[in-house]
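FORM 7B: Structural annotation worksheet

SECTION A. Query
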Amino acid sequence: MPFPPEVESARAQVFQQVGRNVLRFQRLELIMKSMVASSRISTTGGESPKAHERRTEAIHKKTLGLISGQFFDEVISNQPPCDGPPAFFEDPTIPKNRVHIASAFVVHFQPEEHARWKVRVKSLIEERNALVHTSLLHIELETFSGCQKALAALEEQGARVSAEIDHLKPIVKSLEESKASLREHLADDAFWKHLFPSKA
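SECTION B. Predicted structure
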């Protein structure tokens, strides 16, 4: 049935805000997946690009819920830094006579802060799933007041997703700087001479 002009306008604003929020959630998901894919690098030479491509492809196929668990295990840790190399550095499939260089980017948080952040992201993931699958079933779009109420809730949700993205920006910057530094080292002959002085 046709709606009064003010209701039609309000409905359009609700639909637009739903779209904006979906895009924000997608951006958050892509950032987290990219961070997980880039946080661990294991190279034995020529095989490394293909191995990294396989890891990246596998990560991008995972759901946001699965990737968030990996994110809080591998990138954002509630454990103190370890004294020795992490377990993933030990790869039994790599022959002992081959050079193996592994790098991990991990940010350590206090357990309490880590737990709060994890709960906050879990809540956002649940909201994202509801937004994508059932949101329009529970929004009152037949009245102006219903649309206004839905719009206010959606705008508040969008602001929280944007805040989460902003929270990740300095960590993403540090990760990119770490990757750039590793690339510089791997391209520097002095780095390899330091590793293998007898072959210098």
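SECTION C. Observations
The helical segments are 5-39, 48-60, 64-75, 111-133, 144-186, 189-195. The mean pLDDT is 85.

SECTION D. Sign-off
Analyst initials: ____
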